Amino acid sequence: MLFYLTVILACQLIGELITVASGLPIPGPVIGMVLLLAGLLIKGGIPDELATVGDAFLTNLSLLFVPAGVGVMLHITLIGEEGLAITLALIGSTLATIAVTAVVMRLLSRTADAADSEAE
């Protein structure tokens, strides 16, 4: 279990190093998740112990929001000053996420339909 926790943290660290070294505007943990996904695809699945570590993280996910809540309270005046920009960014990113999800679902459903028609 400790090994897989180390793997997760190492992927995050490598993602951070890639972000800093390359100057990409992508958060390091996101790159780390992509690296972890690539490793799991190469390995051919999710080991049971890694799933256990992931479940433990999800069980205690609410604790990870405490620092964010403290940050919000600390910078509440800044949030008030930039409220319109924050609101527009949230609405825009939500709409973009919905659009990308729709496009991906359409592409995946076409692929599934093509596979089903070939199987028949």
In short:
With 120 residues, the protein is mainly α. The protein contains 6 helices and no strands. The chain has helices at residues 2-22, 28-43, 48-59, 66-74, 76-81, 83-119.
Characterization of this structure:
This protein is mostly helical. The chain folds into two domains: 59 residues; 51 residues. Helix content is 84%, strand content 0%. The longest helix is centred in the last third of the chain and has 37 residues. The chain is extended, with a radius of gyration of 19 Å. The relative contact order is 0.06.
List the helices and strands and how they pair.
Elements: H1 2-22, H2 28-43, H3 48-59, H4 66-74, H5 76-81, H6 83-119
Helix pairs in contact: 1-2
Structural domain tally: 2
The outline comes out as extended
Q: What is the distance, rounded to the nearest whole angstrom, between the alpha carbons of the first and last residues? A: 44 Å
Classification by helices and strands: mainly alpha
Subcellular location: Cell membrane
InterPro entries: LrgA/CidA (IPR005538)
GO cellular component, one term: plasma membrane
GO molecular function, one term: hydrolase activity
